Amino acid sequence: MAGILERYRKFYDFGDDFPIISLEEGNTPLIPAKKVADAVMQKSGKKGIRVFLKFEGLNPTGSFKDRGMTYAVSQAVAQGHTHIICASTGNTSAAAAAYGARAGLKTLIILPGGKVALGKLSQAILYGASIVEIDGNFDQALDIVRDLGATGKVCIVNSINPYRLQGQKTGAFEVCDALGEAPDDLYIPVGNAGNITAYWIGFKEYADKDITRKRPRMNGYEAEGSAAIVLKRKIEKPETLATAIRIGNPASWQAAEAARDESGGRIDSVTDDEIVAAYQFLAANEGVFCEPSSAASVAGLLKASELDQVKDNATIVCVLTGNGLKDPDSAIKFGNPERAQLPADSAQVAEFFKL
Ligand code: F0G
Question: Best exposed site among 17, 141, 300, 322 by fewest CB in 10 Å?
């Protein structure tokens, strides 16, 4: 299966000689989630709800960032850049490092020190990126990237690069292609607010081209400790265990508000406890292992169910943005602790399993 730029080529205006750098990203599954739907109906008292999980953790580097990075890095090559740079809470850097390696570019990465999940950091290291961990948060790292980008020596591949969002809009295309129509509601985690903006671009484009008849309500969820859009102010010291969305000054803030308002959706926040509960629920009941930040979408849906914000017969899609393997420490911390180390002895093992 070709990557997103080839599959959706007619939605782009690049020519035949455009140097596509691809890892065959996209084409991720839209998984029916009956247990989540049951929980929504039980909490809300509504009927006929269908829930699907757009599992973006199955992209080549394990997150949705690959959709945007294929386009941003291809453009960097087309423009003759030798260096790409990004700030990241982890996933953007993993994707940049992978596509940068494939393109033969030097990838420069700035991370919030001590706040990047182990899997993401290990990816960037093995892909061969040059990495600086700052004594500061993502927002400060992005400020440095903007400064260095202004020198003209490096190409910024954060989502302030418009090609990123133009690539990520294909997530919305795939959801519509799989359902045969746009969903009624999209639930999505919000960090730097690029992805909610990109999905809205995609849904609008499909509706404008009459491929779909409707557009979904866009429902974005920030983590409570970094809920700048909800609180209508920058958060100087964002805090959440959902480190991927630990962002206090989202770059696409206004575009995300526009997506919310144009679609009749909402941007709300979920607590770390709600995020962890959804993270555990998805793994233990649906067999889907996403990273904690990704579970903010499902946590948001469960919260909305309790607040009577879901409608009868709604088709709902929750975007699961990243793979659970990115963050093994959280899995071990919040997973089922029923484990034992025993001698190689059948009787003792049987006893532990209560067989
Ligand atoms: N989920 C995951 C797993 C992420 O890595 C991110 C963002 C988001 C959700 C939020 O998406 O920023 O478009 O609103 N991660 C960025 C990074 C910031 O550096 O990897 P957003």
Answer: 17
The yes-or-no verdict on residue 9 having pLDDT over 80 is: yes
Tell whether ligand 1 has an atom less than 6 A from the beta carbon of residue 171: no
Instruction: Write out the two tokens for 127.
Output: 């892909």
- The mean of the pLDDT values for the chain is 98
Residue environment code for 315-354, b if the CB has 16+ CB neighbours within 10 A, otherwise e: bbbbbbbbbbebbeebbeebbeeeeeeeeeeeeeeeeeee
Q: Is 170 in the pocket of ligand 1 (CB under 6 A)?
A: no
Q: Tell me which of 160, 243, 245 to substitute to probe ligand 1's pocket, judged by most ligand atoms within 8 Å of the beta carbon.
A: 245
Interval 295-304: pLDDT, tens: 999 999 999 9
Please, which residues have CB within 8 angstroms of residue 276's CB and are 6 or more apart in sequence? 241, 292, 295, 334
For residue 92, the ligand 1 atom closest to its alpha carbon is: 20
User: How far is residue 201 CA from its own chain's centroid?
Assistant: 16
Ligand 1 pocket, residue 75 CB under 6 Å = no
Phi-psi category of 200—alpha, beta or left, where left has phi over 0 and alpha has psi -120 to 50?
Answer: alpha
Give tens-digit pLDDT for 229-279.
999 999 999 999 999 999 999 999 999 999 999 999 999 999 999 999 999
Atom nearest to 88 CA in ligand 1 = 19
Could you tell me if the CB of 292 is within 6 A of ligand 1? no
**Minimum CA distance residue for ligand 1 atom 6:** 244
CA angle centred on 35, ends 183 and 62, rounded to 5°: 70
Average pLDDT for residues 63-67, to the nearest whole number?
98
pLDDT band at 1 (very low <50, low <70, confident <90, very high): confident
Residue owning the nearest CA to atom 4 of ligand 1: 244
pLDDT value at residue 275: 98
Q: Is the CB of 197 under 6 A from ligand 1?
A: no
Where in the chain does DSSP place strands (E)? 30-32, 50-55, 83-87, 106-112, 130-134, 155-156, 185-189, 217-223, 266-270, 315-320
